[in-house]
Amino acid sequence: MELQVATRHEGDATVLAASGEVDVYSAPDLDQAIGEALATGHRHLVIDLSAVTFLDSTGLGVLVKGLKGARDAGGWLRLVVISERIRKIFDITGLDASMPLFDTADAALAG
Amino acid sequence: MATATLTIPPQAEQVRTARLVTTAAARRCGVSEDRIDEIRLAVGEVIARSVLRQQRAGLPDPVVLDITDDDDRFTVRVQEATAPDFDDEDGGLALSVAEALAFECDVQAAGSGCMIRLAWPLAEELLEAE
User: Fold this and answer.
1) Å from B8 to nearest chain A CA?
2) Given phi > 0 = left and psi -120 to 50 = alpha, else beta, which region is B88?
3) Which residue positions in chain B have pLDDT lower than 70?
4) Residues of chain A found within 8 Å of residue B44, distances taken between Cβ atoms
5) For chain B, what is the radius of gyration of the CA atoms?
6) φ and ψ of B97, to 5 deg
7) How distant is the Cα of B12 from the closest Cα of chain A, in angstroms?
8) Nearest Cα residue to B63 out of B51, B75, B52
9) Hey, which of A74, A84, A96, B1 has its CA 20 to 30 A from B61?
10) pLDDT in tens, A55-93
11) Chain B environment of A56 (Cβ under 8 Å)
């Protein structure tokens, strides 16, 4: 399933809703969407992965890069993850300690 | 009994094909759905790592995936053209994830390249292990 990324703005935050598979082939598309948001001054980011069916370490690398970019700009990056399948890779790598995971975009926006 | 051999060019778009074939083979061997998710991720990590390593090394050789269910194990062997000590840059995370998910994971020299072996016990043994 191809990766799709839909961008919308909620107050001073930007929600990037991804759907499909994030892997070595498609991760550059997510990287580009995050990069464009940051480059246009949107430094508070919610990456909604609730419709993502596969995420590997290349996808994690993109999220870590986005987290660093948001923090460097004085903002934040929060994730929406509902699938146990996707949560597992955050558990294995311990990245859930540095990237907070939320159940909904509204919860992520509220922090 | 060999169940499948897949040869792919070292291209990122081929990694998904490898995951699909592995998932279908695991299902056919009777692996549980929960375990199939782990196998899909682990094998995807290893194949993606091999593809990226060969791209960085400029090696156009195919990456070969061999799937078997010998000896009560569901085993996936990935043969790549880069040597085991090839500078891996950020490929270490991919292998760490695969090691965390597989019951057995090892990397061996194979000819001028290397082979990564991932294995999981089949159903009965899994029940005893958990």
Assistant:
1) 14
2) alpha
3) 1-2, 88-91, 123-130
4) 23, 54, 56
5) 14
6) -65, -45
7) 5
8) B51
9) B1
10) 999 999 999 999 999 999 999 999 999 999 999 999 999
11) 41, 44-45, 48, 94, 97
d(CA B110, CA B8): 18
pLDDT tens per residue across span B73-90: 999 999 999 988 887 666
Contact between residue B117 and residue B75 where contact means Cβ atoms under 8 Å apart: yes
Give the closest of A24, A85, A93 to B48, CB-based: A24
Residue A50 tokens, joined = 């609730």
Closest CA to B124 of B61, B66, B72: B72
Contact B97 A21 (CB under 8 A): no
Instruction: Tell me: pLDDT of A4 over 70.
Output: yes
Distance of residue B108 Cα from the nearest chain A Cα, in angstroms: 22
